[in-house]
Batch of 2 targets.
Target 1
Amino acid sequence: MPKIVTRFAPSPTGVLHIGSVRTALFNFLYARQHGGTFILRIEDTDKERSKKEFEDNILDGLSWLGLKHDEFFRQSDRGAVYRKYLEKLIIDGTAYVSKEEPVEEGKLAEVIRFKNPKGIVTFRDEVRGDISFDTTELGDFVIAKDLDTPLYHFAVVADDFEMGVTHIIRGDDGISNTPRQILIQEALGAPRPVYTHLPMILASDKSKLSKRHGALAVTEYREEGYLPEAILNFVALMGWNPGNDQEVISFDEMLKLFSFEKIQKSGAVFNIDKLKWLNKHYLKTLPSKGVGEEILARFPEDLRKQAREHSEVFAKIIPIIMDRISAFGEVLELVSGGEIAYFFVDPTYEREALLWKDEKNLVRAREHLDKVYEMLQTIPSEDFVAVRIKDTLWDYATSAGRGNVLWPLRYALSGRDKSPDPFFLADILGKETTLRRIEHARRVLVSP
Ligand code: GLU
């Protein structure tokens, strides 16, 4: 068996998109599975549209995901290779220089055309089986503008040959390119690689996938606080499965189980909710120390300072935050929704907000808070935990009316219509802060 060589061959005309990650991953997995070589080849023959910043973005994204290449090439560095093969075809008579319609007044343009034998090309695709094309209509297609300016198909074939690529795994938009590439291959005397074309990725409404479906560049997911594990798990299962309906699959399992046979023919569906769900799953596997730092990193500076000052409170709200988000970026929404600051800063509010809906009597509301204050004072600081707090207040709240007692308490602690229950809140805030906030609410209730 010859050594397995695969390649991921992005054109640097855009950022690394999540759909392309699947192509990179499958090439990577197949090479790793067989002790082969995984090549990264930047296909920048289109000089106008290729940009260094996109190449950098692709490299950055792949390395963040851990899809390390064994060899790296850039087509713009490889002019000599293409020239060598173009000359060979011309000498062999399978390509020729042709004079074309004038581009400028009176000046004929020259291009290099491939002498198409014009027959049926049949190739086997690992996903779709045999595919045949009649290449007659392609005519003698152009493969280079001149010896130093090869066109895309020619460069791909010359590279795959020269690099010893044994397996071509790419998106199914590559199918229609294959016959042309096989013709060039045959003229060069290159062996035919194994072809595997991956099913197209569609939005869940079966339309063309775009940003509005949540499909982003890999680096954007990173900024939004997604984890590489979740991204890889997610893309692996778009059009492939491990032979069952397992949804969480580790990298090691993928490496063991990946095979062409389990790639589906029909279009794969991109479901952003699935990615969020997976990311939430992987977030739970993170060590808690790192999680706290990730959350803090998303806080605005003043909040970060307060959280560091009240590190005990912060440690207690980490699980609440983790429960509410599926990616670290969503911490920003919690912050801007006002769901974090009140843990660190005493809230302010209108007096009316402290009243339970059927309570009109300020004095009675204050009496409830007085009573609550008194009872909470009896709990030693070290026992100031949710169960104990609840036990202490429950009978009173039940007899006096739970809403009438617990609403003002909860509001006093959070200053918000929605928040965790008051026992839990008091536990997080600690005895001192809890009593201080109740005291403040009592004053608000009776102030003129
Ligand atoms: N450079 C091509 C692209 O970015 C892929 C070529 C190939 O895989 O054969 O679409």
Target 2
Amino acid sequence: MPAMPDSPSYRGRFAPSPTGPLHFGSLTTALGSWLLARHAHGQWWVRVEDLDPPREIEGAAAGQLAALRAFGLHTDAPVESQSQRGALYQSAVDRLLDEGKAFLCQCSRSDLAAHDGIHHHCLGRGKRAGKAIRLRVPEGARISFVDGLQGSITQDLWRDVGDFVLKRSDGLWAYQLAVVVDDADQGMTDIVRGADLLDSTPRQILLQQALELTTPRYLHLPVITDAGGNKLSKSSAAIPVDALAPLPALHAAWRALGQTGLPGRAANDVASFLAIARTCFAPAQLPRSRSIPLAAVHNETDTNAV
Ligand code: GLU
């Protein structure tokens, strides 16, 4: 993988999948990652994670990028799309195959059902036409890391995850592979994202170790949940944020990030809101929980805020 020409002390990113419009949960994550990057005098990049065409909605990527611009969250580098980066993923997988760290697999989901979906060795039925590529997870593989917000996390990858997919049997790249390759290739030092991805992080660290890549710092922000306790999601048509009236949503996202004391209540445009927010931002106040109910954010304000 080519070394980046510069080595920033902080480079973060927001990497939405184009499965629907930007909603309040994704705005909160975007604002949180932007504030942390600006607080560290670092860079903030946007990347489009369009790896899974069947789940994507036409025009969603352009809509999300336009919404981010309307919220004043401007990328510091040209936006890259994962759909254009297959050659990088292929060379990473080729290397893992050559080194015997990855293997071709014909096991289907139903083959693995009796093993809780966990793959430890091929079951030899080989009925399926397409072959997936999996990372071999050695017995006893455990990964521990300290998350910037959620504290110490340990996962027994062999017991709880097993050999995981890098390239699907239908030829699509798996998120775990693409995100690791892209974060390294783009020189990311700090991964700030929703806590729903906390469980994926040990897989990504194992993959970084297999590819001899540096592990970035991780910080997982709480996700915003609906009345049923489910994460607001782009694909479940959570109410999109109104890019035409961005200030109320920015104020609500600020509060969802545990932030108070914004002297610029008078800020009447997005640029001045963000200029004030970046100076008032207190990372120590970020909530150390994995989720926050949307109702809790609403209750602190009028319900039209988001
Ligand atoms: N593409 C993922 C999403 O939209 C985020 C992946 C990441 O930040 O690592 O939820």
